[in-house]
Amino acid sequence: MELNGRPVTAGELGPLALGNYGHFTTMRVEDMGVRGLSLHLDRLLADCRLVHGVELDLDRVRHLVRKAAAAAPSPVIVRVTVFDPEFDLAHPAAKARPEILVTTRPVPGDRPPPSLSVVEYERDMPQVKHSGLFGALLQRRFAQAAGHDDALFVNGRDQISEGPTWNIGFVRDGGVVWPGADRLGGVTMRLLDEALTRAGVRTVTAAVDTGDLAQMDAAFITDAAAGPRPVRAIEGAELSLDDPLLTTIRREYAALPLDPL
């Protein structure tokens, strides 16, 4: 865990821990390369302008990610968090001086297809990958306490949006349907959508409500750490794990090139 390339102190982490005001992106680094690196950097730049009102030095970000990744076994999960160690809860509009926190963790092992519980929940500013994860993770906790693996969010109109830390896609009639409700446009989802289009697979973004689930042949979730993973069940209703398109989805994502850091 390094702040601007050096070990971070507890005092410097205090504002982030207590105020939880910042934004981040998470990427999987393999052999010093990242799928969709430019999308991760574009996200950090846009979110920094919105959250902190200043520009972010992306060359500096790349340098710090390279430094952290080089010191860890490959592949590795790298998270870049942008926050102001001097953030004042009473004066959030004060001129920000955000700094770059880089943390690493091992790549998760293979996990079985999850069972999802549907809950009504909408993240604050879902278009921003901000560090305010309390509500989303609380819903994950509730889902697991009820015997599921994770939570699937719907808005107040019963439209499906996303999960706590992932996007979801559905397989229907040989194509992919991405839910159109407000949610974070994840890097993995965007890369996969482009790859499937190039492969001749039809993809659409449309409103999907819980009443549409019975018409879906399969479902999968996407995140940068694990890539696409099939979903076993939603609210106890079993979904196919061997639909041919799920194999295509995994193959096309695995074939995506790594952008050098």
Automatic annotation (TrEMBL):
Pfam families: Aminotran_4 (PF01063)
Record InterPro entries: Aminotrans_IV (IPR001544), Aminotransferase-like (IPR036038), BCAT-like_C (IPR043132), BCAT-like_N (IPR043131)
GO molecular function, one term: catalytic activity
NCBIfam families attached to this UniProt entry: PRK09266.1 (NF006734)
Entry protein name: Aminotransferase
